[in-house]
Design brief:
Largest sheet: 5 strands, antiparallel
Mean pLDDT: 86
Shape: globular
Structural class: alpha+beta
Number of helices: 3
Order of helices and strands: HEEEHEEH
Number of strands: 5
Distance between the termini: 14 Å
Oligomer: single chain
Low-confidence stretches: none
Strand content: 25-35%
Strand order of the largest sheet: 3-2-1-4-5
Helix content: 40-55%
């Protein structure tokens, strides 16, 4: 039982770090430099949930842009991992088709990081709260288990 609780504590700690990082980037991205980019890949990847009960679809929108004379490629659409329905993934890849010119927001301090849709999403906060609850809950149970 100790190993299971420790595992949840570690996984949720990683979740807190990752969602905090994504929230910082998302918040900062609204003030990043807006530039033009070209879509060089637009496709849908698929996978199965861990339980194997549900198939998910994850669109990849890769784009190329030039910032301060240097050319970069990136595939951040927003700062969260979107597992979509087949229909939503298809709509997104149809809207962001190969060869299309789009606006992206580039991090001026780290130009290899860019995003199509800047800003925080409700999902960021929900994910962060969930990870925090799991982390501190795991610590609470570990404390009780160790006594």
């Amino acid at each position: 039982m100790l190993y299971i609780i420790s595992f949840f504590a570690c996984i949720s700690a990683i979740g807190v770090v990752v969602t905090t990082r994504n929230m910082m980037f998302a918040k900062q991205s609204c003030s990043w430099k807006k530039i033009s980019a070209e879509i060089i890949e637009s496709e849908i990847g698929t996978g199965w949930t861990r339980s194997g009960s549900k198939k998910y679809y994850r669109p990849t929108i890769r784009y190329r842009y030039t910032f301060q004379g240097q050319t970069y490629e990136c595939e951040n659409f927003n700062f969260l991992i979107d597992d979509l329905s087949k229909e939503d993934a298809l709509l997104l890849t149809q809207a962001y088709y190969l060869g299309r010119e789009i606006d992206v927001f580039v991090n001026p301090n780290t130009p290899k990081i860019a995003v199509v849709k800047p800003g925080l999403q409700d999902w960021h906060l929900y994910a962060w709260i969930l990870c925090c609850v799991l982390f501190f809950g795991s610590l609470y149970f570990l404390r009780d288990f160790m006594q």
